[in-house]
Amino acid sequence: MARNAHAYALSANDLLTGEQVFWSHQGRWCLSFEDALFSTEPQNLTPLGNAEEAANRVVGAALIPVDENRRPVELRDQRRLQGVSVAVRTTASEAASRPSAATLAQAA
Amino acid sequence: MYAYDQYDQAFVEQRAAEFREQIERRLSGALSEDEFKPLRLQNGLYLQLHAYMLRVAIPYGALNARQLRVLGDLADRYDKGYGHFTTRQNIQYNWTKLSDVADMIDALASVQMHAIQTSGNCIRNVTTDAYAGVAGDEWLDPRPSAELLRQWSSLHPEFAFLPRKFKIAVLGAAQDRAAMKFHDIGLWAKLDADGQPQYDIWVGGGQGRTPRVARLFQEAVPLADLLPTLDAMLRVYNLAGRRDNKYKARIKILIDEMGIEPYRLAVVEELARVDRDAFATAVGEYQRIAAQFETAQRPALQGQKVPEGSPEFRAWLQQNGLTHKVNGYAAVSVSLKTKGAIPGDASGAQMRAVADLAERYSAGEIRVSHRQNLVLPWVKLNDLETLYHALLEQDLAEANVGLVSDIIACPGLDYCALATARSIPVAQALSLRLRERERRQGPIEASLNISGCINACGHHHAANIGILGLNRSESETYQISLGGRADEGAKVGDILGPGFSQDQVPDVVETLLDTWQSLREDGEDFSQTYDRVGKQPFKEAVYV
Ligand code: HEM
Ligand code: SF4
Q1: What are the angstrom distances between the C-alpha of B493 and each of B120, B232, B466, B519?
Q2: How many domains are there within chain B?
Q3: In terms of domains, do B149 and B230 share one?
Q4: What are the pLDDT digits (tens) for A3-45?
């Protein structure tokens, strides 16, 4: 249990794009932390992450501990959620196809 | 420049095809991440916070215009329009998609490039002086030695799974411009009385959580003994280096624990077992490579003169130019540290522009420096001003190479999965502040390096002012160290005291510079003042 953790979200990187994704209420991966499922029982989320990794949809599944306000407790998670500190444009191939589409569709 | 032979080309193409197949198997689910990870790391592909990162090798930091153009195209086509040149003279793409990697690697192979051995516990890209072959203070061009080492270390069957990564740098000049003494092995090439290459071998340098300056292993090793000696040195390390704890697995720790003398004896014993016949072709191969580099050298030119130009041009040349060993030429650095820029980042358009300029004004050659800048090594004196104006148009003519605003920084917590703090915004804020200070005061010759965690990829230990980003009580804190240096007098900096918040860092750095400037005696650089007065006056100035 992380210090000051009130609940947990499940995150991972999309297998194809490496983009950060979150396990949602809808029972699939989503791109927005706002839509993430929060659980006070991390033991329920961990096997889910393992199963999704085994299904080759994501890599690096890990729990994000959050406080009462659903704010990540760890600095690393906070910064990761903020995204990079510099303005970056989308890649040419992103413009052609939404990066996480494969993951989102498969998991649906 | 060295040109691949058919063997090199076939090797790179075969490896590209192999990795394409491995990626396909991963995407189809035939390979699990556990199975795939060692394969992708052997091909320079990491997973970071927001995407995959592809690290491309730039052997000894040398590029031709075609190669740089392809690097620029990769940035535009597969990344978000830029690439990051690193302190190890490589380039990293931070926004790579797994499904694009095979095409990226094919594009690299088409210009004799690859990403092999840019990760993993093997011998990494061999680095050298960015001014190799052109520096006025050079005794021996280190590139043929570096190329010989590239061939020896590429897919060396014994050294693919060392206890830990292994980094080698080669120098051939009086001045160390490659942080040689912070490498696992550093070679200082010189000429013997007969004009043949010989090497002083240094061992056990490194940064990370246990910074060490390399120790002298042996002086004046003749060329014929170089590869057998390195083989024996690596064999001893491979057998005796610790594999139980990755933080204690580098050769520097083996030498700390064993002592340099016992290590030397063990290498001598091992050398007696090395099959010398296996290296019978090394001297001939060196000569073949050296001849290639020599033909690419240009003859001296008559009638070349530095144009009078504007004061801005003269300031730029004074700061970013280096005396050339061949009459009629200058070598100039292209700063990737424009005011407020991300150190080492170049856009695809900038890379293509520098490639064009290299073709027009620098014999088609470009180098990547360990301070994360580019170098145009062969500029005719008559062309300098025209080149300057062309660089200005690309925002690449900042006159600050070697100054305090020429900041080294790693990607930090913006990208890196291992980071404990951001380093990019700190570097940008400092760049704005320090460029402004330089505008007021003129050139400030000191080094400032930033790392986003204790792994020290941003060389903070080796800077006059080093900044290490740490994560303390859920916010970033930046620990300052002073007095480090990466040149011939290499030294690890001393930690000043408790860290500072991100907002405080620019003021603290300015206070440190004020203190140095008020204490320095005639002509002293930062290290000299620091060595004379010690840490105390700096401490008193910042912890009031
Ligand atoms: C983002 C991906 C990166 C990862 C995962 C990474 C990982 C590491 C690690 C774990 C170490 C410590 C090794 C040890 O102490 O045994 C290290 C050291 C180092 N890295 Fe990186 N690094 C990354 C990016 C970079 C970049 C961008 C640069 C250049 C700007 C760089 C250059 C170096 C250097 C010069 C060292 C210290 C020299 C030494 O190995 O002792 N790395 N890196
Ligand atoms: S120093 Fe740390 S944060 Fe910076 S690149 Fe290296 S591992 Fe990442």
Answers
A1: 28, 32, 7, 19
A2: 4
A3: yes
A4: 779 999 999 999 999 999 999 999 999 999 999 999 999 999 9
ipTM score assigned to the predicted complex = 0.89
- The answer to the question of residue B120 being in a domain is no
- Tens digits of residue pLDDT in B459-483: 999 999 999 999 986 789 999 999 9
Cα of B21 vs its chain's centroid, Å: 31
Of B86, B416, B420, B461, the one to substitute when testing ligand 2's pocket (max ligand atoms within 8 A of C-beta) is: B416
pLDDT tens digit sequence for B506-532? 999 999 999 999 999 998 999 999 999
Map out the domains of chain A as residue ranges. 7-107
Quick check: helix, strand or coil at residue B52?
strand
Q: Which residue has the tokens 């050294």?
A: B159
CATH of the domain at B338: 3.30.70.3340
| Ligand nearest to the Cα of B94, by number | 1
> Closest Cα partner for B424 from A81, A33, A88, A32?
A88
Tokens of B179: 């942080």
Residue B97 placed within a domain: yes
Q: Is B413 in contact with A99 (Cβ distance < 8 A)?
A: no
Using the CB atoms, write b or e for B422-435: b if 16+ within 10 Å: bbbbbbbbbbebbb
What is the total residue count of chain B? 544
Q: Which range of residues forms the domain containing residue B414?
A: 408-542
Within-domain flag for B266: yes
Q: Is the CB of B207 under 6 A from ligand 1?
A: yes
